[in-house]
Amino acid sequence: MVELKTAAEVQAMRAAGQVVAATLAAVREAAAVGVSLLDLDALATDLILESGAVPLFRNYHPSWAPSAFPGSLCTSVNDAVVHGIPGPYRLRPGDLVSIDCGARLAGWCGDAAISFIVGTADLADIALVAATEAALAHGIAAARPGNRLGDIGAAIGLYARGAGYGILADHGGHGIGRQMHEDPHVPNEGRAGKGPLLRPGMVLAIEPMLIADGSDDYRHDADGWTLRTLTGARAAHSEHTVAIGEDGPEVLTR
């Protein structure tokens, strides 16, 4: 069941979203050559706790996972698409890094992700990150009252496929509120005009995950969490928590 949020509840989610946004900005600033993923995770943990929030991902244990997630961030590098566990790996020049961050503040959740390149960037990686951000922008623009859920997926998918990129199979965005994952599932491809009606008060995490070589398939690492492209191609991930307002989408994690 899709839960509609009141204006006050959306404002509470905006506060959680601002914790996430500030944390992602600080992590991006700190992500230099030689810095470990564990260093970035420790920084995020400290910032989230100092804000009076708690890390949303830490100790999350869905039924499909072999163990609880151990980090405050998902840190996915190069061919890792999503759900990378922070570890001792130290960033190298040219790494394409995707950082997913979530926080719960006063009982409400915020969730967002960014991708960026460390040091000197390859032009193909710059284009991939830009396309992922643009696909997200297209999806957000379609998140308007009176549209359908399929309009979001159609906007993301048409842009991404048109630019020649793959879309991670079997994964997409989700409703969000008091829980990180709520109804509905938000596919990154869809048919315009199809699916549930978008209504004011719905809050969605919209998150395209694009693959450079046009493939969609993935494999799991031995850790049971990290998803990697099957071909070894690089990937990028971009996400915002978005409320559907009376006049259109409101990004809560800007």
Largest sheet: 5 strands, antiparallel
Mean pLDDT: 98
Work out the helix count. 4
Strand portion, in percent? 25-35%
C-alpha termini separation: 27 Å
Strand order of the largest sheet: 8-7-9-14-15
Computed over alpha carbons, the radius of gyration is: 17 Å
- How many beta-strand elements? 15
Q: Which structural category fits the helices and strands?
A: alpha+beta
> pLDDT under 50 segments (min length 5)?
none
Molecular shape:
globular
SSE pattern, N- to C-terminal: HHEEEEEHHEEEEEEEEEE
- This entry's quaternary arrangement is single chain
User: What portion of residues is helical?
Assistant: 25-40%
Description:
Keywords: Aminopeptidase, Hydrolase, Metal-binding, Protease. A divalent metal cation 2 binds at residues 111, 174, 207, 239. Substrate binds at residues 83, 181. Residues 12-245 form the Peptidase M24 domain. It is built from four helices and 15 strands. The radius of gyration is 17 Å and the shape is globular. The strands form four sheets. A five-stranded antiparallel β-sheet has the order 8-7-9-14-15, sandwiched between helices. Strands 1, 2, 4 and 5 form a four-stranded antiparallel β-sheet that branches. A three-stranded antiparallel β-sheet has the order 3-12-11, with no helix packed on it. With 254 residues, the protein is an alpha+beta fold.
Q: Which properties best describe this structure?
A:
254 residues, alpha+beta, five-stranded antiparallel beta sheet, four-stranded antiparallel beta sheet, 27% strand
